[in-house]
Design a protein that fits this description.
This protein has two helices and 17 strands. It is mostly beta strands. It starts with a helix and ends in a 6-residue tail after the last strand.
Length: 285
Protein backbone atom coordinates (compact mmCIF):
# COMPACT_ATOMS: atom_id res chain seq x y z
CA UNK A 1 0.00 0.00 0.00
CA UNK A 2 2.80 2.45 0.88
CA UNK A 3 4.43 1.79 -2.55
CA UNK A 4 1.13 2.52 -4.32
CA UNK A 5 0.79 5.82 -2.42
CA UNK A 6 4.41 6.70 -3.19
CA UNK A 7 3.98 5.96 -6.91
CA UNK A 8 0.75 8.00 -6.96
CA UNK A 9 2.54 10.93 -5.33
CA UNK A 10 5.34 10.78 -7.92
CA UNK A 11 2.83 10.67 -10.80
CA UNK A 12 0.87 13.62 -9.44
CA UNK A 13 4.06 15.60 -8.90
CA UNK A 14 5.21 14.86 -12.46
CA UNK A 15 1.86 15.92 -13.93
CA UNK A 16 1.93 19.11 -11.91
CA UNK A 17 5.43 19.90 -13.14
CA UNK A 18 4.38 19.36 -16.77
CA UNK A 19 1.39 21.69 -16.36
CA UNK A 20 3.60 24.35 -14.80
CA UNK A 21 5.98 24.13 -17.76
CA UNK A 22 3.09 24.45 -20.22
CA UNK A 23 1.97 27.74 -18.63
CA UNK A 24 5.46 29.19 -18.18
CA UNK A 25 7.28 30.93 -21.02
CA UNK A 26 10.97 30.57 -21.78
CA UNK A 27 11.87 33.60 -19.68
CA UNK A 28 10.47 31.98 -16.55
CA UNK A 29 7.46 34.29 -16.35
CA UNK A 30 4.21 32.56 -15.45
CA UNK A 31 1.59 32.99 -18.18
CA UNK A 32 -1.92 31.79 -18.89
CA UNK A 33 -3.34 30.67 -22.20
CA UNK A 34 -5.86 33.23 -23.44
CA UNK A 35 -8.25 32.68 -26.31
CA UNK A 36 -9.06 35.60 -28.60
CA UNK A 37 -12.20 37.28 -27.33
CA UNK A 38 -14.50 37.92 -30.32
CA UNK A 39 -15.85 41.01 -28.53
CA UNK A 40 -12.39 42.64 -28.50
CA UNK A 41 -10.94 44.57 -31.42
CA UNK A 42 -8.24 42.82 -33.45
CA UNK A 43 -5.80 44.69 -35.71
CA UNK A 44 -6.66 43.83 -39.36
CA UNK A 45 -4.89 46.55 -41.42
CA UNK A 46 -2.21 49.11 -40.74
CA UNK A 47 0.46 51.38 -42.14
CA UNK A 48 3.26 52.35 -39.77
CA UNK A 49 5.17 54.26 -42.48
CA UNK A 50 8.46 52.55 -41.60
CA UNK A 51 10.10 53.26 -44.97
CA UNK A 52 11.13 56.23 -47.10
CA UNK A 53 9.61 57.49 -50.34
CA UNK A 54 6.17 57.67 -51.92
CA UNK A 55 3.21 56.17 -50.02
CA UNK A 56 2.93 52.39 -50.29
CA UNK A 57 1.01 51.75 -53.52
CA UNK A 58 -0.24 48.39 -52.22
CA UNK A 59 -2.07 50.23 -49.44
CA UNK A 60 -2.95 53.63 -50.93
CA UNK A 61 -4.09 55.14 -54.20
CA UNK A 62 -4.47 58.77 -55.28
CA UNK A 63 -7.80 60.46 -55.92
CA UNK A 64 -7.60 63.14 -58.63
CA UNK A 65 -10.88 62.87 -60.53
CA UNK A 66 -12.53 65.92 -58.92
CA UNK A 67 -9.75 68.38 -59.81
CA UNK A 68 -11.62 69.80 -62.78
CA UNK A 69 -14.70 70.60 -60.69
CA UNK A 70 -13.08 71.81 -57.47
CA UNK A 71 -14.45 68.72 -55.72
CA UNK A 72 -17.90 70.28 -55.44
CA UNK A 73 -16.59 72.74 -52.84
CA UNK A 74 -14.78 75.31 -55.04
CA UNK A 75 -11.48 74.08 -53.65
CA UNK A 76 -8.37 75.83 -54.94
CA UNK A 77 -5.80 73.00 -54.98
CA UNK A 78 -4.83 70.43 -57.61
CA UNK A 79 -4.47 66.95 -56.11
CA UNK A 80 -1.44 65.33 -57.70
CA UNK A 81 -0.59 61.68 -58.27
CA UNK A 82 2.60 60.03 -56.98
CA UNK A 83 4.35 63.38 -56.66
CA UNK A 84 6.89 63.38 -53.85
CA UNK A 85 6.47 67.12 -53.31
CA UNK A 86 2.91 66.52 -52.07
CA UNK A 87 2.94 63.08 -50.43
CA UNK A 88 5.99 61.28 -49.07
CA UNK A 89 7.25 59.25 -46.14
CA UNK A 90 10.36 60.02 -44.12
CA UNK A 91 11.52 59.27 -40.59
CA UNK A 92 8.47 57.08 -40.00
CA UNK A 93 5.97 59.84 -40.87
CA UNK A 94 3.64 60.24 -43.84
CA UNK A 95 3.51 63.88 -44.90
CA UNK A 96 0.72 65.32 -47.03
CA UNK A 97 1.86 68.75 -48.10
CA UNK A 98 -0.07 71.64 -49.63
CA UNK A 99 2.11 74.02 -51.65
CA UNK A 100 1.57 77.49 -53.10
CA UNK A 101 2.53 76.94 -56.74
CA UNK A 102 1.00 77.17 -60.19
CA UNK A 103 0.14 73.73 -61.46
CA UNK A 104 -2.21 72.83 -64.32
CA UNK A 105 -4.20 76.08 -64.06
CA UNK A 106 -4.42 75.86 -60.24
CA UNK A 107 -2.54 78.01 -57.73
CA UNK A 108 -1.95 75.29 -55.13
CA UNK A 109 -1.09 71.58 -55.06
CA UNK A 110 -1.73 68.89 -52.48
CA UNK A 111 -2.55 65.18 -52.24
CA UNK A 112 -5.61 63.08 -51.46
CA UNK A 113 -4.87 59.48 -50.49
CA UNK A 114 -7.44 56.66 -50.43
CA UNK A 115 -6.95 53.36 -48.63
CA UNK A 116 -7.19 50.18 -50.71
CA UNK A 117 -8.69 48.46 -47.67
CA UNK A 118 -12.42 49.07 -47.20
CA UNK A 119 -13.71 48.03 -43.78
CA UNK A 120 -17.35 47.64 -42.85
CA UNK A 121 -17.55 48.62 -39.17
CA UNK A 122 -14.59 48.62 -36.81
CA UNK A 123 -12.25 50.99 -35.04
CA UNK A 124 -10.23 53.33 -37.24
CA UNK A 125 -7.32 55.14 -35.60
CA UNK A 126 -5.13 57.77 -37.29
CA UNK A 127 -2.36 59.41 -35.29
CA UNK A 128 -1.73 62.82 -36.80
CA UNK A 129 -0.49 66.38 -36.46
CA UNK A 130 -2.62 68.94 -38.31
CA UNK A 131 -1.82 71.99 -40.46
CA UNK A 132 -3.02 75.37 -39.23
CA UNK A 133 -2.46 77.88 -42.02
CA UNK A 134 -5.48 80.05 -42.84
CA UNK A 135 -7.11 78.59 -45.92
CA UNK A 136 -6.23 74.96 -45.17
CA UNK A 137 -8.89 72.30 -44.74
CA UNK A 138 -7.44 69.01 -43.56
CA UNK A 139 -9.51 65.88 -43.16
CA UNK A 140 -9.49 62.23 -42.13
CA UNK A 141 -12.72 60.75 -43.45
CA UNK A 142 -14.50 57.89 -45.20
CA UNK A 143 -16.62 57.28 -48.30
CA UNK A 144 -18.39 54.13 -49.56
CA UNK A 145 -16.38 51.53 -51.47
CA UNK A 146 -16.82 51.77 -55.23
CA UNK A 147 -18.15 55.32 -55.06
CA UNK A 148 -16.85 57.82 -57.60
CA UNK A 149 -16.94 61.61 -57.48
CA UNK A 150 -18.50 61.48 -60.94
CA UNK A 151 -21.42 59.40 -59.66
CA UNK A 152 -22.86 62.60 -58.25
CA UNK A 153 -25.10 60.99 -55.62
CA UNK A 154 -23.53 62.61 -52.56
CA UNK A 155 -24.60 62.76 -49.76
CA UNK A 156 -27.24 60.06 -50.24
CA UNK A 157 -24.57 57.33 -50.19
CA UNK A 158 -23.15 58.55 -46.85
CA UNK A 159 -19.98 60.21 -45.58
CA UNK A 160 -18.15 59.72 -42.28
CA UNK A 161 -15.84 62.51 -41.10
CA UNK A 162 -13.48 61.30 -38.39
CA UNK A 163 -11.61 64.61 -38.27
CA UNK A 164 -11.94 67.94 -40.04
CA UNK A 165 -9.90 71.02 -39.19
CA UNK A 166 -9.91 74.40 -40.93
CA UNK A 167 -6.94 76.71 -40.54
CA UNK A 168 -8.96 79.83 -39.78
CA UNK A 169 -10.33 78.11 -36.65
CA UNK A 170 -7.19 76.50 -35.19
CA UNK A 171 -7.55 73.81 -32.55
CA UNK A 172 -11.24 73.12 -33.24
CA UNK A 173 -11.72 69.55 -34.48
CA UNK A 174 -14.98 68.34 -36.02
CA UNK A 175 -16.52 64.88 -36.47
CA UNK A 176 -19.65 64.46 -38.60
CA UNK A 177 -21.89 62.02 -40.44
CA UNK A 178 -23.66 63.07 -43.65
CA UNK A 179 -26.60 61.39 -45.41
CA UNK A 180 -29.55 62.37 -47.57
CA UNK A 181 -31.50 63.70 -44.59
CA UNK A 182 -28.54 64.82 -42.48
CA UNK A 183 -26.17 67.05 -44.44
CA UNK A 184 -24.31 70.32 -44.06
CA UNK A 185 -26.17 72.14 -46.86
CA UNK A 186 -29.33 71.79 -44.79
CA UNK A 187 -27.54 72.34 -41.48
CA UNK A 188 -28.87 69.00 -40.31
CA UNK A 189 -25.69 66.91 -40.30
CA UNK A 190 -24.88 64.88 -37.21
CA UNK A 191 -21.82 66.63 -35.85
CA UNK A 192 -19.81 67.68 -32.81
CA UNK A 193 -16.60 69.56 -32.01
CA UNK A 194 -13.77 69.26 -29.54
CA UNK A 195 -11.05 71.78 -28.71
CA UNK A 196 -7.52 70.46 -29.20
CA UNK A 197 -5.31 73.53 -28.65
CA UNK A 198 -2.07 71.79 -29.63
CA UNK A 199 -3.50 69.91 -32.64
CA UNK A 200 -0.88 71.50 -34.91
CA UNK A 201 2.01 71.07 -32.49
CA UNK A 202 1.54 67.53 -31.17
CA UNK A 203 0.36 64.20 -32.50
CA UNK A 204 -3.08 63.03 -31.40
CA UNK A 205 -5.11 59.93 -32.22
CA UNK A 206 -8.29 60.62 -34.19
CA UNK A 207 -10.53 57.60 -33.69
CA UNK A 208 -13.82 56.30 -35.04
CA UNK A 209 -15.66 53.38 -33.47
CA UNK A 210 -18.34 52.24 -35.91
CA UNK A 211 -20.88 49.44 -35.43
CA UNK A 212 -24.31 48.72 -36.97
CA UNK A 213 -25.81 50.57 -34.00
CA UNK A 214 -23.64 53.61 -33.32
CA UNK A 215 -20.73 55.80 -34.41
CA UNK A 216 -18.42 57.31 -31.83
CA UNK A 217 -15.54 59.72 -32.43
CA UNK A 218 -12.66 60.32 -30.04
CA UNK A 219 -9.55 62.41 -29.81
CA UNK A 220 -7.17 60.19 -27.84
CA UNK A 221 -9.33 58.99 -24.94
CA UNK A 222 -11.92 61.78 -25.16
CA UNK A 223 -15.31 60.80 -26.61
CA UNK A 224 -17.00 63.85 -28.14
CA UNK A 225 -19.28 62.61 -30.95
CA UNK A 226 -21.92 59.89 -30.74
CA UNK A 227 -24.58 59.11 -33.34
CA UNK A 228 -26.97 56.20 -32.82
CA UNK A 229 -28.74 54.39 -35.65
CA UNK A 230 -32.37 55.47 -35.46
CA UNK A 231 -33.54 52.49 -37.58
CA UNK A 232 -35.40 54.90 -39.88
CA UNK A 233 -33.86 53.81 -43.16
CA UNK A 234 -30.93 54.53 -45.45
CA UNK A 235 -31.76 58.22 -45.90
CA UNK A 236 -30.57 58.66 -42.33
CA UNK A 237 -28.16 55.74 -41.86
CA UNK A 238 -26.45 54.65 -45.12
CA UNK A 239 -23.51 53.18 -43.22
CA UNK A 240 -24.05 49.41 -43.37
CA UNK A 241 -21.52 48.80 -46.15
CA UNK A 242 -17.75 49.01 -46.69
CA UNK A 243 -16.11 52.45 -46.63
CA UNK A 244 -12.58 53.46 -47.61
CA UNK A 245 -10.40 55.91 -45.67
CA UNK A 246 -9.31 59.27 -47.09
CA UNK A 247 -6.42 61.49 -45.95
CA UNK A 248 -6.13 64.92 -47.54
CA UNK A 249 -5.28 68.60 -47.15
CA UNK A 250 -7.51 70.88 -49.20
CA UNK A 251 -6.95 74.58 -49.82
CA UNK A 252 -9.84 77.04 -49.80
CA UNK A 253 -13.26 75.68 -50.63
CA UNK A 254 -16.64 76.60 -49.20
CA UNK A 255 -15.39 76.09 -45.64
CA UNK A 256 -11.64 76.55 -45.83
CA UNK A 257 -11.91 79.90 -47.61
CA UNK A 258 -14.37 81.58 -45.21
CA UNK A 259 -11.62 83.93 -44.00
CA UNK A 260 -9.48 83.78 -47.12
CA UNK A 261 -6.17 82.05 -47.84
CA UNK A 262 -2.91 83.20 -46.28
CA UNK A 263 -0.38 82.52 -49.04
CA UNK A 264 2.50 83.36 -46.69
CA UNK A 265 1.53 80.41 -44.48
CA UNK A 266 2.44 77.82 -47.13
CA UNK A 267 3.70 75.15 -47.36
CA UNK A 268 1.31 73.44 -44.91
CA UNK A 269 1.62 69.78 -43.93
CA UNK A 270 -0.50 67.13 -42.26
CA UNK A 271 1.76 64.53 -40.64
CA UNK A 272 0.55 60.98 -39.97
CA UNK A 273 2.48 58.68 -37.66
CA UNK A 274 0.33 55.61 -38.24
CA UNK A 275 -3.01 54.34 -39.50
CA UNK A 276 -4.56 51.28 -37.80
CA UNK A 277 -7.87 49.56 -38.46
CA UNK A 278 -9.35 47.08 -36.00
CA UNK A 279 -12.39 44.82 -36.25
CA UNK A 280 -14.24 42.34 -34.08
CA UNK A 281 -14.15 38.71 -35.23
CA UNK A 282 -17.86 37.96 -35.07
CA UNK A 283 -19.45 41.06 -36.63
CA UNK A 284 -16.84 43.25 -38.23
CA UNK A 285 -15.03 41.26 -40.91
Amino acid sequence: MKKIIAYSTIILFTLGLLLLLLFTDCTGNSTKYKEVNPDEYQLVWQDEFDFRGLPDSTKWRYDTEGNEFGWGNNEAQYYTMARVENAFVENGILKIRALKEEYLEKNYTSARLISRFEPQYGKIEVNAKLPNGRGTWSAIWMMPGGWSFKDGNWPDIGEIDIMEHVGHDPGVVHASAHSKDYQWQKGTQKTAIIHVPDASDEFHSYILEWTPDVMKAFVDDSLYFEYHNERLGETKWPYDKPFYLILNVAVGGEWGNIKGIDDDAFPQTMEIDYVRIFQKDHTEN
